């Protein structure tokens, strides 16, 4: 069986991103999204999530390039004195590897962000992280503890398989090199299993972030083998709020929205065997299947 979770990141980022995600879900082109707990559009996104109970909603946990849910005094190594996280991923990773960011602070902040969604009435189906920081063990370990404490049973597998990389022809060479290098971290699946959480066989669309269009999306669907996969995408409408956000994904969000709307409602014509789902549909039988791969 080939199963696919269609997940849009950055729910809550801006009104244009929120509108795009809701419209794509209503069109049958998205099954899942992940909500940013401290983004400016959080309240509107949380209300929309409650209004659309068939949309799986996870927590897009942010440790870099954003604002914390905790006070800076409670996480002095994770958050900068100005009350924000480090703006750049490379700075965060360097300090993480040097042991300058305690796992305890990551766990406390993750719990605060998850609890904010739950307090708003959102049933949190899974976790992932902004810029995929949980591919690093020193983030994954406390994030798994936070998931268990908050009753969250699933987490994104952020590593993209070879078949999906081969089906993504237009990604920049530097990003292709980065994705291949980072996916060598083999501890992920064993740590997730030991924590009692469920994940997928891998994520697709990670390499295509910023360049995902209808052609690449069709290639990914056509190449998809048996297993449980997650499409990672970042659709949105460009608006004044997006112009004020520190992100490299601007015009590409509208391109992704158009591509998803063009391809996914008629995906049966590309790959008739795909079954759509969200993380809330992963159960005990799925866990055994995924763990055996």
Search tags:
alpha/beta; 41% helix; 14% strand; globular; disordered C terminus
Written account of the structure:
The chain has 293 residues and is α/β, with parallel strands linked by helices. 41% of the residues lie in helices and 14% in strands. It contains twelve helices and seven strands. Strands 1, 2, 3, 4, 5, 6 and 7 form a seven-stranded parallel β-sheet that branches. Strand 2, helix 2 and strand 3 form a beta-alpha-beta unit. It is globular, with a radius of gyration of 18 Å. It starts with a strand and ends with a helix. 47% of the residues are buried. The C terminus is likely disordered.
The radius of gyration is 18 Å
Strand content: 5-15%
Order of SSEs: EHEHEHHEHHHHEHEHHEH
Shape: globular
User: Which structural category fits the helices and strands?
Assistant: alpha/beta
Give unreliable regions as ranges: 284-293
Q: Note the gap between the termini.
A: 13 Å
Give the number of DSSP strands: 7
Query: Mean pLDDT, nearest integer?
Result: 90
Oligomer: single chain
Helicity range of the residues? 40-55%
If helices are DSSP runs of H or I spanning 4 or more residues, what is the number of helices? Answer: 12
Most strands sheet: 7 strands, parallel
Topology:
Blueprint: E1 2-11, H1 15-26, E2 32-35, H2 42-51, E3 56-61, H3 89-97, H4 103-119, E4 124-129, H5 137-150, H6 162-166, H7 173-182, H8 187-195, E5 202-204, H9 214-223, E6 227-233, H10 240-243, H11 251-263, E7 274-277, H12 284-291
Parallel strand pairs: 1-2, 1-6, 1-7, 2-3, 3-4, 5-6
Helix pairs in contact: 1-11, 4-5, 5-8, 9-11
